């Protein structure tokens, strides 16, 4: 029996006490948002996911989707749960009210929604998450007739969305895609090509599926600069014949729009989430955004999905932790090394063993630290839309910087944490009954999709650091060094502030090294990127723990805040020291890998 | 299509050039063993496993075993492959010729056999591995009538063996087992109780299954000191009525010996290997070894299985590496950051990317380093039987020290490496077609069974280090410090010798810290045990790489030896620095975990 208690309390602490986000959110135009309403939202979604999503998660893993003659059949329970979500509005919280959404701030959908959703049912959660991503690109960049026609359906999640990028020979290197879009006289396009690894590319959950497809127009420039973005629905409107979609009703044709699904991958986890091969054959579509400007638009959606993927790391790590802890509480083996603790039983509870505590705290502390950084990052998603240019510029700079770290570091930690929780449970962790082995399989994809974590690291080290003349990094270092300075004279902050200071100093030195060496030899920079990204992630988490400690020190004496201070100590004692190793590895450079004789791999 | 090339060449290099084991093995009574014969053995087993085991590995995962009314059905292909192994002698290489075995040295079975076997079919390999373990305990400690009766069948592997330890409430803490063995008048015992997690506890592959069962006799002392070991066959001899088994034929009764299987766990991997709940109800068995001396005997088998489990880490990591590499060789994405490398193609092969090389080398270098340490450890298994007391004492001391490290560090690295190889392949790594996702699931159990890796670490730090007044460690440090001393003046050894020296110095300091602090507060020692074990593993692998470098430097100029030197550099640049983090974590002590408020987990 898998259990889950959504961490509403921890989010209340982060949103209200650590980041004090309500005033900021209200100034951004959400005047009705206060902390009571936020709690109500979180509790509502917590109830929905634990009542309707969690109970079918193991079933989804066991039954999975069924591919038959081009169609994908989802378990009936998944269709039902999805439509319960549509009816109650939970699948489109951040979409505008005019399009049938809840119209609440983006941070809620990007952080709390994503965590509870992926924890309780990762396979189901990706469908509305993708749909929200399509909604955002469409409403921001689509022509009026496209927005008017599609946004109300996508905004309510009655129609679902996908992103179609990868082709068999073109994954990371999208410049090589060969899907073609031929302009038609009426302004629409005829799209043809094959896309692979398309999550929910085909399914029977919604009435229509709206694909965002990367394709090249005839005579487009080589590489990524020749790519445009197209909206291609599975079913065309029955009333439509030519031209725009203005004034046309949402009733759909019976025959598909030249789109077929020729298979779904058998994979290690996420069995209830189809991963499709989708073929477009003279499918009618409309361009979204400017010609040859498809990559930046798709990247807007991709970046949102990268944050969503980071949240999968936290979500699955948290539910794994809770189930491991619940198992620990019932398990008695051996005795406290300092002497029998519980003479009424033949053995003590295994929480007496330091190594069991070490594992549980690695999980708990990583989850809580990541949740703090996620909360900050979520707020940035609302702040980039601020009418105050200074605020939006700063938010965009930090968001650019944090996105690859949230994606890569959270999913690396997520996979490690689920493994640690499995380890806590011993043989039971490996058995299907207890659920953790499913989390272990499901969470593993998060390190791969939306750009592998190696690609995230290259994005950080090779692009985000130097972008805008280094402004992204400066926007972080200003408040960070000020925080360190402000706390330098506070004795009880020293144990947190000092290692944070060391970490920031180390990060600055490594950044300089990466940039200066990278100028003459880009291999140096690329060789260190993954370790640099992890180092950076550690420093951000150190900042989070120092901030949490600051807030909690003022309220010492109640278990909640005392535990936060203890968690912070554990972080600096047992997690943060990995920066020592990472720094040394980065400094060793690229030679030991690039000089390796190629024929001897 | 999963590929595999058994690393025979690497073993030849290790056995013949790095460790020069033939003279030692010949002196131990295997006069006919020379390097040609050893190669022939390795190639024979390589052929057998790649021809008969590898082709059914994915099938075994997909079909799995079937539990029905107390019986376990294995896939027919598994039964056939097993019997091909019996017929050709490959399942009992280390058993004595008089019992139908090949009679070759133990190191072959423990190292090379184990690696190729687990790589090609981990689920099948555990059956003969367990059987060999039962054979060893039986022949060394069993009464003559038991040996005469069972050893020829177990030695040929026509009958299989199991180890029955765990009970629902007693896993790590075996002192709490409640299985009972009541003495019968004829010297046999009546065994009753329930055991769980029994690998191949029931199956249809062999005619009989011989269980080694831990149980307590009436009025036995509390805890582990009251445990005895019993041999309990699934089927009793049809001719037997009472007393010993002397002179009785191997024809078996039709009815089972009070043994039933009430279920098999559904689990994440190893689907073709049953994990059974086994009930004994007045089952007839015979005691093996002295009364109340069951634990040391079971530990003899357990220690062999711990080494075998460590080899699973290497085996699965090696086959994952080979398949990731094969995928890499066909994959083109992006361009070399130093400029286009292959203008004839639209993209360069991904081996041009430093991060891809980093991942592949982490896999390759860890595999080769572990294989070296495994080779040394395997030799110790033969040396402990030496008639030269000095040699056997030294070998036993080193074996005691290495066993927890081989088990924990190799399986930790194995799981990490398989994950890294999956990462190299991106989305393909997550799909079933390519095989690596099965390795990812299968290898994960290796960190759990035969004592979790946390237990291994406690065994190392809490027992093996201080055992025999610290003699185990001294037997390692003598040759190790001599090696460092001998190479101090050799300039081209400096890059390997110097970090090795630092590592050994660090290990000595940490050992002193653990022991001194541990005396007053055992929590300190237990809190650092896992990191200490990993630190120790790193130092042993550093020793291996320094030794390999020494051998290879003399033969520089051919790709094989040049690659070894490059691998060694990669090890010291990119893997060994993790000791910096581990040392800092150990020194931080136990307080951050033990002071954590219990109610706040």
**How much helix is in the residues of chain A?**
55-70%
The ordered string of helix (H) and strand (E) elements of chain A is HHHHEEHHHEEEEEEEHHHHHHHHHHHH
Q: In what range is the share of β-strand residues of chain A? A: 5-15%
Number of strands of chain A: 9
How does the helix and strand content of chain A classify structurally?
A: alpha+beta
The major sheet of chain A is characterized as:
7 strands, mixed
Given this structure, which CATH class of the domain at 8-141 in chain A is correct? Mainly Alpha
The assembly state of the depicted protein chains is homodimer
**Average of per-residue pLDDT values of chain A:** 97
Features:
globular; 7-stranded mixed sheet; 10% strand; two-stranded antiparallel ribbon; Butyryl-CoA Dehydrogenase, subunit A, domain 2; alpha+beta; Butyryl-Coa Dehydrogenase, subunit A, domain 1; 601 residues; 9 strands; homodimer; 57% helix
Any overview of this molecule?
The structure is a homodimer of 601-residue chains. Chain A is an alpha+beta fold and 601 residues long. Among the domains of chain A are: 8-141, Orthogonal Bundle (Butyryl-Coa Dehydrogenase, subunit A, domain 1), CATH 1.10.540.10; 160-293, Butyryl-CoA Dehydrogenase, subunit A, domain 2 (Beta Barrel); 465-589. Chain A is 57% helix and 10% strand. Chain A has 19 helices and 9 strands. Chain A has helices at 8-18, 22-27, 35-53, 57-63, 76-88, 106-141, 144-156, 294-329, 354-383, 389-424, 427-430, 436-443, 453-464, 467-487, 494-520, 522-553, 559-575, 578-587, 591-594, and strands at 66-68, 71-73, 160-164, 180-183, 189-199, 209-216, 227-233, 259-264, 275-288. In chain A, strands 3, 4, 5, 6, 7, 8 and 9 form a 7-stranded mixed β-sheet that branches. In chain A, helix 6 runs antiparallel to helix 7. The longest helix of chain A is centred in the N-terminal third of the chain and has 36 residues, at 106-141. The first copy, chain A, is globular and about 80 Å long. Chain A starts with 7 loop residues before the first helix and ends in a 7-residue tail after the last helix. The model of chain A has no long low-confidence stretch (mean pLDDT 97). The interface between A and B is large, with 96 and 97 residues.
């Amino acid at each position: 029996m898998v259990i889950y208690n959504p961490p509403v309390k921890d989010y209340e602490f982060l949103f209200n006490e650590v980041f004090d986000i309500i005033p900021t959110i209200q100034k951004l135009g959400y005047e009705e948002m206060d902390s009571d309403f936020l709690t109500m939202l979180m509790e509502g979604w917590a109830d929905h996911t634990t009542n309707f999503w969690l109970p079918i998660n193991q079933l989804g893993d066991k039954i999975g989707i069924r591919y038959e003659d081009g169609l994908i059949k989802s378990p009936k329970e998944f269709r039902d749960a999805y439509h319960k979500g549509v009816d109650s509005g939970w699948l489109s919280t951040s979409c505008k009210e005019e399009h049938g959404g809840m119209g609440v701030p983006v941070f809620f959908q990007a952080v709390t929604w994503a965590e509870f959703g992926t924890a309780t049912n990762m396979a189901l959660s990706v469908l509305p998450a993708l749909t929200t991503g399509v909604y955002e690109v469409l409403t921001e960049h689509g022509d009026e007739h496209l927005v008017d026609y599609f946004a109300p359906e996508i905004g309510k999640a009655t129609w679902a969305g996908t992103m179609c990028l990868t082709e068999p020979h073109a994954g990371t290197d999208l410049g090589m895609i060969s899907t073609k879009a031929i302009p038609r006289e009426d302004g629409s396009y005829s799209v043809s090509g094959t896309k692979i690894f398309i999550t929910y590319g085909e399914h029977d959950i919604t009435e229509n599926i709206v694909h965002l497809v990367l394709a090249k127009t005839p005579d487009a420039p080589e590489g990524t600069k020749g790519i445009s973005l197209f909206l291609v629905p599975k079913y065309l409107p029955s009333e439509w014949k030519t031209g725009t979609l203005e004034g046309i009703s949402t009733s759909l044709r019976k025959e598909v729009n030249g789109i077929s699904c020729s298979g779904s991958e058998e994979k290690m986890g996420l069995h209830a989430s189809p991963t499709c091969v989708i073929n477009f054959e003279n499918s009618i579509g409309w361009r979204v955004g400017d010609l040859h400007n498809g990559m930046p638009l798709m990247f807007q959606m991709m970046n949102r999905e990268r944050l969503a993927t980071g949240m999968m790391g936290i979500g699955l790590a948290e539910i794994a932790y809770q189930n491991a802890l619940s198992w620990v509480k019932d398990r008695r083996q051996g005795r406290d090394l300092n002497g029998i603790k519980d003479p009424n039983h033949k053995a003590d509870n295994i929480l007496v063993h330091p190594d069991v505590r070490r594992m549980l705290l690695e999980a708990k502390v990583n989850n809580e630290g990541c949740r703090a950084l996620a909360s900050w990052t979520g707020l940035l998603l609302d702040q980039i839309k601020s009418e105050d240019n200074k605020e939006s510029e700063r938010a965009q700079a930090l968001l650019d910087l944090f996105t690859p770290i949230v994606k890569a570091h959270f999913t690396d930690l997520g996979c490690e944490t689920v493994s640690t929780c499995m380890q806590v449970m011993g043989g039971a962790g490996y058995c299907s009954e207890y659920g953790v082995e499913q989390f272990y399989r499901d969470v593993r994809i998060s390190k791969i999709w939306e750009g592998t974590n190696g690609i995230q690291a290259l994005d950080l080290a090779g692009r985000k650091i130097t972008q805008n003349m280094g402004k992204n990094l400066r926007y972080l270092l200003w408040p960070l060094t000020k925080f360190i300075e402000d706390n330098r004279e506070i004795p009880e902050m020293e144990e947190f502030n000092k290692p944070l200071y060391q970490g920031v100093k180390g990060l600055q030195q490594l950044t300089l090294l990466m940039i200066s060496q990278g100028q003459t030899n880009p291999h140096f920079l690329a060789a260190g990127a993954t370790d640099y990204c992890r180092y950076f992630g550690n420093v951000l988490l150190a900042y989070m723990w120092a901030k949490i400690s600051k807030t909690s020190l003022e309220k010492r004496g109640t278990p909640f805040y005392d535990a936060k201070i203890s968690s912070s100590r554990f972080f600096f004692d047992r997690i943060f020291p990995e920066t020592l190793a990472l720094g040394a590895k980065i400094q060793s450079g690229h030679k030991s890998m690039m000089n390796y004789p190629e024929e001897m791999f």
